[in-house]
């Protein structure tokens, strides 16, 4: 027992390092993180837990329920407002997801090994240990936790017919809807289809199941009704932003072709493991182990239907795929488990116990060291030219420099600046925004866009205080 507990703790430490290491290094990101950070900052300031605010007004652009913002608010109260407080809910959700996989593995397979393999696959998944997932203060890390809980609870309910699994199932539904609105419900058609194929549809019409549906709907629906009462027009904004508007139109130019998610997964999001995914599905379906076979069929149906929904949707964003990764990790883990147990049947690992360690190390060491390198030195990608000013603001926010009485001249969307400038303003540092055409003599101006450089240098006489590849600081003469 001591060895098993020690092994689980060690595994969670290994899994937790990529989740938490240098979590607060990068400045707040576009798009959702900086918006949520502003929402949480204003909620902490005005005390309104129901209506989220941005720039002093009810936020009608980010219309999702505020469960993640409430989590961020908790850590802001505990740690103060900073990057770590905003990002901890996502990182903790990643660790809890690993624990859910371990618990499920022991409960269903009577071994932690499949869950352990799934944890390591998950934390070596590039698109999971990344911005807009569990490394930033976005919706998608917590969403993946709750959809994993609801999916695996539904599977256990189908297999055991034990109504105790309805409690985590409906808790997962309610929490995931309060996290990201309609998106988690895209898993439900696949779950219903699995019950149909297993000839267990009757389980979806039992009294406990119907009561659970009512309570989950009531908990989630209560927020929407209360928000509409306090913030008239909210439900219309939800429809335009999240439901019909987002599904039938490519909002904010985020539309792409039908191969978008496959291309992103093979190229960046799931590069080490995607090639094993088809093999794991085929071997799982053909497995003589009935439990592996049933879970493979369930996973395949649920992930495929969800994948079809996000592919058909006109609005395509790579982080919509994040809830798939825990279930994909289980696919890979079952394949690795079958490979691991095959030589065990012929007494190979019993005769050569270090061979098991070597095999596991060979499989995981390369993707794990790659992910460690990524989180140990978090850095801006070459295409992210939006953050040089954010880095200055982050330094000012952490008292490493002063930006008092400076002007930011920036023509693009500046949401990622605002969360810092609001916090600095409340501390007494005044940072103004001006269009580059409206600068005044004596302004100390910070710019990072080529077109702004050209406009300033052609229109004004200036002294250049700083000039590098990413940023220029001028004094307007």
Structure write-up:
The chain is mainly alpha-helical and about 475 residues long. It folds into two domains: about 1-375, no CATH class; about 390-475. The chain is about 60% helix and about 5% strand. The protein has 20 helices and seven strands. The chain has helices at about 1-20, 30-45, 65-80, 85-110, 115-125, 140-160, 165-180, 190-195, 205-230, 235-240, 245-250, 260-270, 275-285, 290-310, 325-345, 350, 355-375, 390-395, 415-425, 450-460; strands at about 55, 55-60, 405-410, 430-435, 445, 460-465, 470-475. Strands 4-3-5-7-6 form a five-stranded mixed sheet. The protein has a two-stranded antiparallel sheet with strand order 1-2. Strand 6 and strand 7 form a beta hairpin. Helix 4 (about 85-110) runs antiparallel to helix 5 and helix 13 crosses helix 15 (about 325-345). The longest helix has 27 residues, at about 85-110. The termini are far apart. The model has no long low-confidence stretch (mean pLDDT about 90).
